[in-house]
Amino acid sequence: MPAKKPRKPRKLPEYLTVDEVRQLLKTPYPIEKRDRLILELLVRLGLRASELCDMQIENVNFERVEIRVRGKGQKDRILPIPGCLVRPLKDYIDNEKSGPMFGIGRRALYYLVVGYAKRADISRIKVHPHALRHTYAVSLIKAGVDIRTVQLQLGHANLNTTAIYLALTTADRRETLENHPLGY
Is 26 noted as a catalytic residue in this protein? Predict the structure, then answer.
């Protein structure tokens, strides 16, 4: 039996900084209401491109302030809607009861995100919908959210998939430790 090749260590996916996210969402040009909501949902919920494209209006529950998304393997998960998105979601839906939320395909979504990143002059990394998902995951880890909660938010079946986000760079770890209440 041949020996197994050692696995290459997976590198941390590229993600946007907090300033880059602000730059993306507050660019000096008008962002259409729909496009802004799309960007906000990707960044603030960590949605996969397919989850956003398949999102249905009837899956938004304003009474419970949550949204049901269909993830990989046709598995549903319930995500809390961030307070800052409740009003924009209500305004966007505007009394519609059912149907596709955005009516956008994955390719169009990709070009939408890339286009706004270009306009925002973000060039340090290649910005695409999944990079915004990575940004969300890293932001949760940096905020001290436990790995199991991050797993549930992202809809990962395996905790090992989520654990890659624990491999923050040394600089990120140093910054986190320096801001620790007991000092470093």
Answer: no
